[in-house]
Automatic annotation (TrEMBL):
<protein>
    <submittedName>
        <fullName>DUF3243 domain-containing protein</fullName>
    </submittedName>
</protein>
<dbReference type="InterPro" id="IPR038292">
    <property type="entry name" value="YmfJ/YflH_sf"/>
</dbReference>
<dbReference type="InterPro" id="IPR021637">
    <property type="entry name" value="DUF3243"/>
</dbReference>
<dbReference type="Pfam" id="PF11588">
    <property type="entry name" value="DUF3243"/>
</dbReference>
<dbReference type="InterPro" id="IPR024702">
    <property type="entry name" value="Uncharacterised_YmfJ"/>
</dbReference>
Length: 89
């Protein structure tokens, strides 16, 4: 089972990676930029595996680069709070 199959697993996986990057000394702006690049890659290369990922892809595809940057930033903020990881699907 892939972390992409279950949105809660995906959020937990992303949260772990964000925490590792912070502990390695990655600046917040750099972290946001990496999240933006990953979002673009996922949108172009990975088929959504669940409803939440389909929604994120649709939002990403509908946005301009500034809006995509904001969405990436929100995903990082979402997974930095453990309460958000365990909520919902």
């Amino acid at each position: 089972m892939s972390v992409l199959d279950n949105f809660r697993d995906w959020k937990e996986f992303l949260g772990d990676r964000v925490e590792q990057a912070k502990q390695a000394g990655m600046e917040s702006d750099t972290l946001q930029n990496v999240a933006y690049q990953i979002g673009g890659y996922l949108s172009e290369q990975v088929d959504p595996k669940n409803d939440q990922e389909r929604l994120l892809k649709q939002l990403w595809d509908a946005g301009d680069p500034q809006q995509q940057q904001a969405l990436a930033s929100l995903m990082v903020k979402l997974v930095q709070n453990p309460e958000n990881i365990n909520r919902g699907s």
